[in-house]
Automatic annotation (TrEMBL):
GO terms for cellular component: endoplasmic reticulum membrane; endoplasmic reticulum-endosome membrane contact site; late endosome membrane; lysosomal membrane. It comes from the Eukaryota. It is found in: Membrane. This is StAR-related lipid transfer protein 3. Residues 25-203 form the MENTAL domain. One of its GO terms (biological process) is vesicle tethering to endoplasmic reticulum. The gene is stard3.
Amino acid sequence: MATNATSESTYIAYELIDKPFPGLLTKHRRRLIIFTCFDFCLIFLLWILFVMTKSIHWKEEMMRQINFTNGRFFYNSLFDLVILSTFRCGALTICYACLKLNHWMPVAVSTGVTTLFDIPKATIYFSQRHAGYPLEFAIVVCSLLVAYIEVYLYDSKTRSLISVCNSQGRASNAMPERCHEQSASAYITAAELTTDNESDNGASFLQKSKYDTTGLVESPEWYIGKAERALNHGKYWRSQLCSWKKVGHSPLLLTHVDQLYGKVLYVKQIFPVQLKQLFSVLYSQAETCPMWHKEVLKYKVICKLNDNVDITYSLSAPSLRGYIASREFVDVRTVELDDDCITIGSISVPYGTVADGTSHIRGESGPNVAFLTAIDENSTLFEWFFNTDLKGNLPRSLVQRSLVSFMVNFIKNLENHLKATYG
């Protein structure tokens, strides 16, 4: 249960309601199994309707349909498609519900077998010797269609907490051993969200919040390199904007699916302030962000690595009326200064617990890169690439809507703050 710092109301976050108990199937698996049962019921029902409507002597027609000894069974009967549907339903249920396999091979095999069977079946069955009843077409088409829908419904993203922790960073570089140990306790999933986690880790040496804490990080070079790679990733995205999909125009909002980091959002806006003024608000005075952007509850620098690189902690406000709980992020942040362009980049890194008395789900940010470009003395172009993983068992549509809303509100709140500060 999470509580909004700005409200006395109490709510249960969506992911805590929908998270399955240990040993039960995830909602993606349940959806696939239910659809395979629907697959069998649909094909069987269509076949029964076809038999009943083809002839008034439906009993004789049914016996003819299921007569396997007939040498022309494949040519004259559609009952083999019912058998094929039974095979799909049984195989996928056994593999994904009973054995709980986490591999795409079973659904790929069932779809491949269906395709190889249905295409010759349709070619032979609908020859000139068959008039083709509507139900006959429906049985063949539905048999092939539902097989490919089952491929679409398959979701292989269910992984254990250990595999998630071992894959933190998503870059190919190996992280320090101490970081692995800290990340296992720092990244909290929705199922583990309890207030005990924070108290158990209360003695962590990384909980101190001083600006001269470089020594608390065993390998600053790894963090600095991580930040530099995030900047380079943002520069690459910027060079590919012409191929991105437009999803909004006020402000300009683009989206793209990156092979490594997933969905990335891009926003563009011109602010009537000087470059140094915008930089001061977004970087030098970033810890005051919660004062003008209410969707951020907390932002602070917790570790300074060098003059241009530090580690920050941020806490987002609950969104969608509490369906998505607060998320905490620990990012390494860097800045690259030029005369007419300033680049600010950040990305999540493994870090110990940042205790504040409550436990929060640890989100994971991909490369978040902002480009500040001076247009003239009194206007600055702001471009922001935003990528994050909220973790938890959340529907993609809810996450997408929440992130888009966050970016649009950020631009509006930033614009209002700049007007109030600089006129």
